[in-house]
Each structure stands twice: as structure tokens, then as C-alpha cells.
Amino acid sequence: MNTAFIIILVLAFFILMSSFFTVKQQSSVIIERFGKFLSVRNSGLQLKIPLVDRLAGRVNLKIQQLDVIIETKTRDNVFIKMKVSVQFKVIQEKVYDAFYKLEYPHDQITAYVFDVVRAEVPKLKLDDVFERKDDIAIAVKRELNEAMTTYGYDIINTLVTDIDPDIQVKNAMNRINAADREKTAAEFEAESSRIRIVAKAKAEAESKRLQGQGIADQRREIARGLVESVEVLNNVGINSQEASALIVVTQHYDTLQAIGADANSNLILLPNSPQAGSDMLNNMVASFTASNQVGEMMKKTNKPITKPKPIEPQQSGYEEDTPPEVK
Question: What share of residues in the chain are helix, strand, coil (percent, to 5)?
């Protein structure tokens, strides 16, 4: 009798304990009574009738993510693989619809994603697929929301997380990109070379202009110095020809001294014999004399023509008959 009573107490205890159950946060429990839906229990400690009510299932209310990989082709007949990530959750007020209306919600979502992507991508070229992937994601979300809200699911977001063309297509795209970048680099290098050439030409032109200006100033100063030197020599009794010759000889020896002092100068052959100075001086004097004679003749040529005077006989040491005057 005591043993049977103990067994009954133990069974009663287990039955009583089975009447209580807990529901975790962000989840719901479906309770059925004799196979028929009874209620939806939310998080916390809950009670059911033992042997009558049962837990039909638990529904997760957290945001879930489903990754769908689709193979499709573009308008230019390039096959690509796209990865679409769908973030969704069960609407708490529609737990009944989510539990009883859909047997496999993941398969349902995958089918809708396939349908939308294979309808949108063939309208676009490969480059447009990369540029308009957000438009594709928005189209998938819109289609899923219209279909899955009826079943108690809310589509939070859809993302096109990967676009993977065929390996040969990717290699071709990389070559095109590399060629385009090389072309751009060559254009920039050519423009840089052009700028350097133009800048160098401008610098050389400016340098030659300044150099010519400097040479002109130098020669002007040299001429002024020569004039002053000739005036000084004239004041001490040296005429202009001798002064000019003396200056030329002095500059000749100054040039030889400058060439000898520069160790990096090129070889220049100049007359450097002992009589070179005197020869140069004589040549200078002769040239000045000849130039003066030419100048005098040009002055006489430019004078007005006058009646010639009779030629007087030259005085000599012997007698000479003079011709009669022609009338």
C-alpha cells in the first residue's frame, strides 16, 4: 500500500511539473489541444494542461539571414553568379500564419529571389549589373514583401553581396582595365614631357635673351672703356692708331694668360712666336692706314666737281722742255 502511494505521488509530481514550461525571449510557442491550435505563448513561465495540451512548435522572432546564390546571364550573354542576402523576421502578431501557412519558408524565399533576379539581370549588361546592384536588391525586397507579408514574414533588407562573372570574363575585364590605365598613364607622361620641353625651350629662350643682352652690355662697356683708354693715351702724345694697336696687343696677351690659367679649357691654336706681337701690331697699323686712305678717297669722290688747275712742272735737277699751253 505504501509503495503504490509513493508511485502515485511520484507520477503526480511529474505530471504537475510537465504542466509548466518556459518560453525564451524573442520566441513564441504554439500550443495545440488534441491536435487543434489553442494559443500562442510568448516569453516567460507558461502553464498547460498535462496530457491534453502539447507544444506544437517554437517560432524564432529574431532577425534571420538567408544567403541565396543564383546563376544567371546578362543581356550581353555573360554568365554570372550572384549572392543575395535576405534579412527577414516573423511578425509577432502573425505567428500563426508563419507557423501554419508555410512549411519551408526558406525555400519559399529562395524561389522568389530566383524569380526576381532572373527577371531583372537579363535586362542589363555586365557593367550595368555592377552599377545597378542596389536597384536589383530593391526589386527583390519589393517582390518578397508583397509575397511574404501574407505568410507573416517581414523582409527587413536585401543585399547583393557578391557578383562573380566567369574567370575568363574577369581576366578580360582586368586586361581592359589595365590597358585603359596604361593609356591614361601614357597620356599623362606625354603631357608631362611636353610641359618639360616647353618649359626648357622657354628657359633657353630667356637664357639666350639675357645672354645676348649681357653680351651687348659687355661690348658697350668695352667700347666705352676703349674710348676712355684712347683719350688717355692721346693726352700723353700717342695717336689713335698707335693707341688702338697697343690695346689690341694687350688684349691678345690677356687672352693667352686666361687660357693658360684655366685647366679645363679646350686646346686653341694662336700665334705665339716672339715676333707675333710686333706682326700683329704692324698688321693693325697697316689696316688702320689703309682704312684711312679709303675713307679719304671716298670723301674726295663725294665732293662737287671743280675746274682742274694747270699742272705745274716738277722741280728736278735737269732741264725739261715745257709743252706749250693748249688754248
Answer: 55, 20, 25
Residue pair 110/164 in contact by the 8 Å Cβ criterion? no
Q: What is the DSSP string of 28-41?
A: EEEEEETTEEEEEE
| Alpha carbon distance 291, 244 (integer Å) | 14
Name residues of the chain where pLDDT drops below 70.
1, 238-246, 248-249, 252-253, 256, 259-260, 262-281, 284-285, 288, 302-327
Residues 70-105 pLDDT 10s = 999 889 888 889 999 999 999 989 999 999 988 888
Angle at 31 between CA 25 and CA 37, to 5 degrees: 135
Specify the long-range contacts of residues 65-73, CB closer than 8 Å, at least 24 apart: 66/106, 66/109, 66/110, 67/161, 68/109, 68/110, 68/113, 68/114, 70/113, 70/114, 70/117, 70/118, 72/117, 72/118, 72/121, 72/122, 73/121, 73/122
Distance CA(262)–CA(244), nearest Å, equals 27
Cell of 32: 495545440
CA–CA separation, 220 and 291 (whole Å): 23
